[in-house]
Design a protein that fits this description.
Elements lengths: L1 H21 L8 E5 L5 H9 L4 E4 L2 H10 L5 E4 L8 H4 L5 E5 L2 H14 L3 E6 L16 H9 L4 E7 L8 H22 L6 E3 L6 H6 L4 E4 L1 H4 L5
Parallel strand pairs: 1-2, 1-8, 2-3, 3-4, 4-5, 5-6, 6-7
C-alpha cells in the first residue's frame, strides 16, 4: 500500500507543478492537504512516511482519535461541516478550520476559544456552486459575513474556502473557483492580505483547475489514498 501511496503522491506532484507552470505560479504557492477521512491511522501513517505532513479530516471524532495515534508534527486541518456540539473534538487539535459556514458556528467557536484561551485560524466557506446540498455563505453574503466574523474575539480569519460543483462541466467548475477568487479580491481591499491569504479550493477531481484559478490550498483524498470506505 505504501508504494501505491508514494507513487500517487509523485504523480500528484507532477500534476501540481504542471498546473502551476500553466498559470505562471510557483509550486511552493500551493499547499497539499491529504484528506484522510475514513482511512485508518495506519494508512495515514503510510502517507506520513511518504513525506506528507498536512492532513485534513471531515469528521470531528476521527480527527481527535487519529491525532492521538499519529506523530505530533502532523498539521491537522478540519475541512468538514462542523456542528457546534462537536467543537470540543476539533479544538485545539486543528491548526486551521476551513469550513466556517455560518455566523452561528463562528460565534460558538469564538465562545469556546475564549473559554480555553485559544486563537483559532479559520476560513469562511462560500457556496459558489449554488448547489443546495452544499453548506456555506452565499457569494453575496460574503463581505458582510467577513466583517461580522472578523469582529469576534479569538478567531483569526485567513481566507475563503469552496467546494466545486459536482459536474463534468469544466466551465462550471472553473467559474465556481473564479468566483471565490474574485470574492477574496474584494474582501482583501478592506481587510488586507493577512486575513485573505488562503484560497482553499480543489479536490481530487478538479484540483488542477483550482490551481489555475488561484488556489493556495488543495484538498486531496482519493488521488492519494484511493477509493474510500464509508
Amino acid at each position: 500500500m505504501i508504494d501505491t501511496i508514494r507513487q500517487n503522491i509523485r504523480d500528484i506532484e507532477i500534476r501540481i507543478s504542471k498546473a502551476c507552470e500553466r498559470s505562471g505560479r510557483k509550486r511552493e504557492d500551493v499547499t497539499l492537504i491529504a484528506v484522510s477521512k475514513t482511512f485508518p491511522a495506519e494508512i495515514v501513517r503510510q502517507a506520513y512516511d511518504a513525506g506528507l505532513r498536512i492532513f485534513g479530516e471531515n469528521r470531528p471524532q476521527e480527527l481527535r482519535e487519529k491525532s492521538q495515534l499519529l506523530p505530533d508534527d502532523i498539521e491537522w486541518h478540519f475541512i468538514g461541516h462542523l456542528q457546534t456540539n462537536k467543537i470540543k473534538y476539533v479544538l485545539p487539535t486543528a491548526r486551521l478550520i476551513h469550513s466556517v459556514d455560518s455566523l452561528h458556528l463562528a460565534q460558538a467557536l469564538s465562545e469556546f476559544a475564549q473559554k480555553k484561551n485559544l486563537h483559532v485560524p479559520i476560513l469562511l466557506e462560500v457556496n459558489t456552486s449554488g448547489e443546495a446540498s452544499k453548506f456555506g455563505f452565499k457569494p453575496e453574503e460574503t463581505a458582510q459575513a467577513f466583517s461580522q466574523i472578523n469582529a469576534l474575539p479569538h478567531l483569526e480569519l485567513r481566507g475563503l474556502m469552496t467546494i466545486g460543483p459536482l459536474t463534468d462541466n469544466v466551465d462550471r467548475i472553473r467559474q465556481a473557483f473564479r468566483e471565490l477568487r474574485a470574492l477574496r479580491d474584494d474582501v482583501r481591499k478592506q481587510w488586507g492580505e493577512e486575513k485573505t491569504a488562503i484560497l482553499s479550493m480543489g479536490m481530487s477531481g478538479d484540483f488542477e483547475i483550482a490551481i489555475e484559478e488561484g488556489a493556495t490550498h488543495i484538498r486531496l483524498g482519493t488521488a492519494i489514498f484511493g477509493k474510500r470506505g464509508k
